[in-house]
Amino acid sequence: MSTGWVKLHRKILEHELWNDVTTFRLFTLLVMRASHQDGFKMNGVVLNKGQYIRSYSKLCEDLAYKEGRGLKKLSKSTIMRSIKKLVTNNIITVSETELGTLFTIVKYESYQEFSSDHETEPRTEEEPIAERRRNESGTKSELYQELKNLRIKEEEEEKRASVENDLTPFQQIEEKYLSRKGGLMLTPKDSAAIERILKERIPLENILVWIDEVFDQYQPKHRADSIKSFAYLESAILDRWHAQLHQPQPLKNNVSEFKPKQHRQSNLDALAQYAKENGIKFGGG
User: Fold this and answer.
1) 54 has which bridge partners?
2) pLDDT tens digits, one per residue of 229-250
3) How confident is the model over 166-196, as pLDDT tens digits?
4) Same domain, 145 and 172
5) Where is the domain boundary, 108, 140, 161?
6) Is residue 26 situated within a structural domain?
7) CA-CA 20 to 30 A from 241: which of 143, 186, 230, 274?
8) CA distances from 153 to 43, 79, 161 (A)
9) pTM listed for this prediction
C-alpha cells in the first residue's frame, strides 16, 4: 500500500484535527496505508476498503519525528490518546486481532470520493495486464511478510518491555491497567479513580505491582465476570497501602543492660582524705 495516491480534502483545514499534529499525522497515515479494495486477505485477516492493520509499537516507529540528529519515537500512550480522539470523533473504529489492531476509516469512500477502483491507483493504458498482476502479487507478499515480521518483533518487545521514561505517573498507571484489562481507552470514572490514587502519594512502584497482583489474584465467578473499572483496583490498592502503613512495629526491648554502679567518692569524703594526708585537723575530731 505504499504505491499510488490518495485524496485529501481541503475541509481538513477546518477540522480540529488540523491543530493536533500527532492525531493529524496518524489519520493521514491510516488514510494513505488503508486498503483501497474489498476482500484483500493477509494472513487470515480480510481487509476491506478503508482498513489497515498495525500494532501500536509499529505506529510509534511510523510516527517518529526528527529531534537533533536522530529520530524520537512517540510513546504508546500518546498513540493511544490520538486513536481515542479519532474514535470519539467517529473518524475511525478499532478492533483487536491476533495480528494487531484493525483500523477502519468510517467514511473512507467519502473522503476519497471514489468513482471507480481505478482512481485509487492510476494505471496507464500501455501497462501490460501481466505486469499489473505481478505488481499486485508482490505487494500482497510484501504485506504478508511485513505482518509476520511485525508480530515476531512485537512479541520480543513485549518480553523485555519496560515503562518508558517519558511517561507521567498517570500514563504509566493507565498503560498498565489497560494492558491487563484489555482495552483501548479509559472511561471518565477510570480517570477520576486514578487521579484519586495519585493524590494519596502512594509510591508508583507499589501501585504498578499491586495492579498486577489484583489481576493475578482475581477469581471470576463465571466466564463473563471480570474487573471492569479502575474503581475496583482503587479499593484494593488503598487496602494494601493502609495495611502497609499500619503494620505492627516490633517491640523494643525496654530492659536496659545491667551495669554495676561504680562507687563515687563524695566531696566531703575527699576533703577528709586530703586533710588526713596533710596533717590537717578536719571535722572537729
Assistant:
1) 101
2) 999 999 999 999 999 998 876 6
3) 688 998 999 899 889 887 788 999 999 999 9
4) no
5) 161
6) yes
7) 186
8) 16, 18, 12
9) 0.42
